[in-house]
Design a protein that fits this description.
It is built from nine helices and seven strands.
Length: 276
C-alpha cells in the first residue's frame, strides 16, 4: 500500500535508472509506472542509454587484448605500480612526520602531476565517448531539450551540487540542443549538446572534481573526435566535436570566459593562429 501512495519525484526516477533504489522504493516506482505507462517507456529508454554509455566507457580489460598490445599494456601496469609505490612512500613519510615529512616534499609535485594526468585522461575518455555515443542520435540526442533550458540547468546543477552555466555559443553559430545527466567514476556528470547550421554537433562535459588548482588547456584527438580539457573552480570541463583544433579552441575560450569566476584572461591559451 505504501508503494501506491508514495509521491514519486524526478530524483526517484533517476535513481531507478541508476539502480540505486531500495526494494521498497523500487516497488513504489513500479507502481507509479503502472499508472503512467508512457513514462515507463521513456525512462526505460534512459536505462538502456545508460547501459550503452557504460559499455562505451568499458575498460579495455573487458575485451581480448591483441598480442601486439600486450607489451605496451604490461609497461603501463608497471608504470602504475611504480606510481602506487611512490604514493605509498610519500604517505608513509608524511605520517612519520619530522624529517620524514620534510623529505616527502620532494614527492608531492610528482604526485600532484600524476593525479592531474589521471583525471585529465579519465575526463577526456568519458567526454569523447559520450560525444561519439550521442552525437549520432537523431531522435534522442539529448535527455532534456533546449526548450526546457531553465529546468535542465537547475536539475543538473542540483545533481552535481555546483552552479552550472550553459555557454552561449551563438556567436560561433552553435545553438543549444539540450543536455543530459551522465555517470562517471567520481559521480554524476553534466553534458550539453550544440549544433550549427551545417549539422556539426559539439558537446560540453562538466564534472565536479576534488581539485583546488586550475589547469591549462589540454588537447586530445581520438578517431576524428577532438577535445579540449581544463579544470577551473572545482569543475573539470571538456569540449568535444568532430571539428578542427582551431575552431574547437575558439569554443573552449568562450566557455572558459563565460564560466570563469574571476574572468581572468591570463590563463587562456593563445588565440588560434598563434603558438599554443
Amino acid at each position: 500500500m505504501r508503494a501506491a501512495i508514495r509521491p514519486i519525484t524526478e530524483d526517484d526516477l533517476q535513481a531507478w535508472v541508476d539502480r540505486r533504489l531500495t526494494p521498497e522504493d523500487t516497488e513504489a516506482v513500479e507502481a507509479y509506472f503502472a499508472a503512467h505507462p508512457e513514462l515507463r517507456e521513456r525512462w526505460s529508454q534512459y536505462a538502456v542509454q545508460r547501459e550503452d554509455l557504460r559499455a562505451a566507457f568499458g575498460r579495455p580489460d573487458e575485451q581480448p587484448i591483441p598480442a601486439r598490445l600486450r607489451v605496451a599494456r604490461l609497461m603501463g601496469e608497471r608504470g602504475r605500480h611504480r606510481q602506487f609505490a611512490r604514493i605509498a612512500a610519500a604517505v608513509a613519510l608524511l605520517v612519520v612526520g619530522g624529517i620524514g615529512g620534510w623529505a616527502a616534499r620532494d614527492f608531492l609535485p610528482a604526485l600532484t602531476s600524476s593525479a592531474s594526468a589521471v583525471l585529465a585522461s579519465s575526463v577526456f575518455d568519458d567526454a569523447i565517448a559520450a560525444h561519439r555515443t550521442f552525437s549520432v542520435e537523431t531522435r534522442h540526442p539529448v535527455e532534456v531539450g533546449a526548450n526546457e533550458e531553465a529546468h535542465l540547468v537547475q536539475w543538473l546543477s542540483k545533481r552535481l551540487g555546483h552552479r552550472l552555466i550553459v555557454p552561449d555559443l551563438s556567436g560561433l553559430g552553435f545553438q543549444l540542443m539540450g543536455g543530459r545527466l551522465l555517470p562517471a567514476d567520481s559521480g554524476p556528470a553534466a553534458w550539453f549538446m550544440y549544433e550549427d547550421g551545417k549539422g556539426t554537433r559539439l558537446s560540453c562535459y562538466y564534472l565536479v572534481v576534488d581539485a583546488a588548482e586550475e589547469t591549462e588547456f589540454q588537447f586530445r584527438e581520438q578517431n576524428g573526435i577532438s577535445a579540449f580539457y581544463w579544470v577551473d573552480d572545482g569543475l573539470a570541463y571538456a569540449i568535444a566535436a568532430n571539428a578542427p583544433r582551431d575552431q574547437l579552441l575558439k569554443v573552449a575560450r568562450i566557455v572558459y570566459e563565460q564560466n570563469s569566476s574571476d574572468g581572468a584572461k591570463a590563463k587562456l591559451p593563445p588565440a588560434p593562429g598563434k603558438a599554443s
